[in-house]
User: What shape does this take?
Amino acid sequence: MPHPALVKPALDPGTLPARTSSGYPEPFRSRVVPREKRGLGDALGLTKIGINLTTLPPGKESSMRHHHTLEDEFVFILEGEVVLRTDQGEQLLTAGTCAGFPAGSGDGHQLVNRSDRPARYLELGNRDPNDVAVYTDVDLAYSKLGRDGRPAPTYSRKDGTPY
Assistant: This one.
């Protein structure tokens, strides 16, 4: 239910547009879309941390299994359930549970919705302009910087060739 009286620094996440696209190249994009992300951190002008309210439909994945070199990540499950996949195996996360992924851990993580209803969760992370994501199980690489050292978020194969 909308809360029209809210003014910044408060907001109703339901008033924000849902981003249902993905920067992933195929064949990875179709594994995650049409997940919905609402950029709470962006909408509130936060520059040091990113916060998304994410809705993951049944049968979809949050991302490819990955870890970050310089960014911590945290997820808090609000509704539904997801399977958390890490190097330790799989475990079920339900409403009220959370998980954290320290930068540089090398432990790839991913959420998968194997249920028959959508799952909603908050995802938080610091915003490091030099971060690199390492994808554990697929031939995919991501860097926030281009080869010239300037900001240019890029997906490629692990050997550096473009998709």
Q: What stands out?
A: The CA atoms of residues 46 and 66 lie 24 Å apart. DSSP finds two helices and twelve strands in the chain.
